[in-house]
Write a structure and sequence with these properties.
Structural class: alpha+beta
Low-confidence stretches: none
Number of helices: 4
Radius of gyration: 20 Å
Strand content: 15-25%
Number of strands: 3
Largest sheet: 3 strands, mixed
Length: 86
């Protein structure tokens, strides 16, 4: 949803309600995008599991073709999954 500064000023409650419901808002000045307003606790991207698994499989295949090998230590960030989702 694109919202001009004027619309934001005149319809603040409507814009906030949209953001609270998960909508991303692009704030514009004279039609030019100047800021993104996104829900605070939203993940950067939400995708169906099937798409995520398909993309991971494609990345794995590409890594195999390119002979890319990563050491397990490359993935150890010292956090549990609970730490990451809190």
């Amino acid at each position: 949803m694109d919202v001009s500064v004027r619309e934001l000023r005149n319809h603040t409650a409507r814009v906030i309600a949209a953001i609270e419901s998960g909508e991303h808002v692009v704030l514009t000045v004279h039609g030019r995008p100047v800021a993104d307003i996104v829900p605070r606790n939203e993940r950067s991207e939400r995708r169906p599991s099937e798409l995520l698994l398909r993309d991971l499989a494609a990345l794995s295949a590409l890594a195999g073709e390119l002979a890319v090998v990563s050491a397990p230590a490359d993935f150890d960030v010292g956090l549990t999954t609970d730490d990451m989702t809190a």
